[in-house]
Amino acid sequence: MLQLDLDTENLEALQTNELKSIHVKFQLQKDCAFGEQFLLVGDDPMFGSWNPSNALPMTWSDGHVWTTHLNIPVGKPIQFKFILKGKTGDIIWQPGPDRMLHTWEAMTRITVCEDWENAEAQKLIQEYQHPYSNEEPMIESNAKVSQTHAKEQMSLLEEIIKNAENRMTERKMMQQNEESSKSSENDVKKNVLRHKGKPAPIKKQKRS
């Protein structure tokens, strides 16, 4: 009976993972001639099984940004590439190795930004929510990371400038003290020389 319950729980967990999917937006910024179109193809049947005839068409937007959307099951690894379909139907494959995508449970929505030529330039912009939190999903993007890094750099630079100013102030005070000390020593030496090494006479005050 216990074994049956465990099998049932495992089956339900597998079914839950299979039912859960991640909304993925594939994005490519690449210029092409009028009448040409970029498509997405990959190893999975939902990507056309590497058959250009079954590839997913992408939509053009300002800035020569091409996008297409898919719901991908959690934990499913995907191999894919973009292809360029010419006016006459000829196909140009994206150069380099196959691109890879791995999804995991913490994701809810994700944008995959790809470079046509550089496979290592892949960027993921993900929106995720902690499984034990009721808070709104957080968005983690390269732009926000860059802004945070810039703020940290500015704070560090300000701290360096402040420390440098403090050091300059301390050096000025030390120089002033040294100059004041030297001036006092010179006055003493002058006074000694004036009286030929003898102590300066003490002036007696007249009694009134």
Automatic annotation (TrEMBL):
GO cellular component: membrane
Domain CBM20: 16-118
Biased composition (Basic residues): 191-208
Source organism (scientific name): Lupinus luteus (European yellow lupine)
Domain of life (superkingdom): Eukaryota
Biased composition (Basic and acidic residues): 170-190
SMART domains: CBM_2
Matching PANTHER family: STARCH-BINDING DOMAIN-CONTAINING PROTEIN 1 (PTHR15048:SF0)
Single GO term (MF): starch binding
Entry protein name: CBM20 domain-containing protein
UniProt-listed PROSITE patterns: CBM20
Positions of region (Disordered): 170-208
